[in-house]
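Protein modeling request. Please complete all fields; requests missing the sequence field cannot be processed.
Requester role: graduate student
Desired output: 3D structure, token encoding
Chains: 1
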Amino acid sequence: MTSGNDASAELLKGTTLRVYRFLFKLGQPAGIRDIQRGLELSSPSVAEYHVNKLLRSGLIKEVEAGYVVDRMVWQNMIRMRRTLIPFQAVYAVFFAAAFVVMVLVLRTIPVDGYIFGVAVVVIALGLSLYETAKALRQIV
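Delivered output (140 residues):
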């Protein structure tokens, strides 16, 4: 049995994902023709097919003026207006700041503890940047 998020992740691929993202970023109701034109789909029936898939899954809903996103499926994201930022980006900024402070402010004669500290911060920064990039690929 799959959870709701697993089912949503399975559904949100290809053109269906593009339609969902389009509606999310638009932030206002859009009709079938708006979606077709906005995504340059071959016909309104293609847009309608993907909209119906999203409707059946409960990710979007129909309102008087068209279709809008009803449920956000991306996890571990910070939403700022219509933009999604992976939560891992906060860690990346923190570790980048720690690295800058260590290298510019706390630099001393290189001793084992200092070198180890810089190495740990660099590894943590690399891992958080990798996770941020992976999360961004999910939504882009």
